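The instructor's notes for this session suggest beginning with a concrete chain rather than abstract definitions. Hand out the sequence below and ask the class to guess, before any prediction is shown, which regions might be ordered.
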Amino acid sequence: MTTETIVTPQLAEGRYRLAASLFPAPERSRKWTPVAWSNYWRSYRNVHRLFRAGSILEGIAEKSWEISPGSTAISRAAFFLPGQLERVTGMAYTEDPRRDMQGGIETFHPPVRGFLVKDAILLDGSLYKANQRLDLHSRARIPRRLRYIPRMQVEYELDCGAIYSSYDGNEFFGLWLTDDCPNYILAKDQGIPITSNQPASPHMLQYEKEFGMTPLRANSAFLRTVALFDDCWGNNFSKHARFRLLKEKLLSNVKVKQHPGVFILRRDSGKPRIMHNEIELAEYLRERRGFRIVDVTKDDVPTIVANCAGARIIAGIEGSHLVHGLMALQPGGAVLTLHPSYRFCSVIKRTTDMEDLRFGFVVGHAEAGGFRADPVEVERTLDLFPPLPACIA
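After discussion, reveal the predicted structure:
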């Protein structure tokens, strides 16, 4: 097996270096394949998102195995003021807010499983095998021409690949941090870690550097063997351990000193979710509570982590940007999410439950073009959180 370093023009600087690997390096290829054309013309419906796809992978894999067992956990109760849930008029990725927030629910987190697929083809963010197509990201992310005139040639051939990224991780930055990055730890032991060639944001590239991630970003590849992973969106002990390892890497060069909290500004980043008094509330909490303010549209990862390390509370509009702060919180810390009434989401709470963190929320009042959170309600909710344990404080 070769340990040659491969250089390809995939990343922002125009050069990408794959660290010396235990696995055979990718070979440049001009292999032709009609698989995408067959998929297009036949228009079969065996198309799936590569996320929680264990039952699909079972049908196309040469073998599957359990990487770590499942585990059972009891959810924590959220911290919130009376009458908040009565304001909810719409939900996202949440079926029953009251059930999710009341806590005390016993949840079985499925085991982490691995699947080995042979002779699969990756083309423009989709993995083809037999009569199945698994999408790593939305088809809207590829040029319109390639949606209707698929490419027929692959760039690479790999003996051993491992796809760690998921459809939702490629869609949402927060899920990339909480799901895909922990999966990378599994992937690097099974083959050359692979993801699609979608442009990575500056924050993603900075986290990859901090975590020591060196993925191959590829438009197209023939994969003689490829490993894939599934935990059915569970938060079992294995995932907790891998996520904790990433947090420790982030904090290893940061001086952690306790402080009241951080308000993370979302502004107009990500999916539109405009809080009209976001800046005013951040300044209010800085003056009243000693909060620091982080702006994800301006600050780099080292700056964000340095400010969030040691925080008792991370606060801000509900969304992926809050996971920056969650990555730096110590056990016993808290996350306060601010929701528009028309979009209540409890995804972040699943991670806070896994990480022994507290979760609270305030539901804002809808206004034209967005919503507004009541500063008094925010302060009253902050007062509900218990202090950090003495061993941490």
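Then share the key points. Residues 173-187 form the longest helix (15 residues). The chain has two domains: 6-66+111-240, 72-109+254-382.
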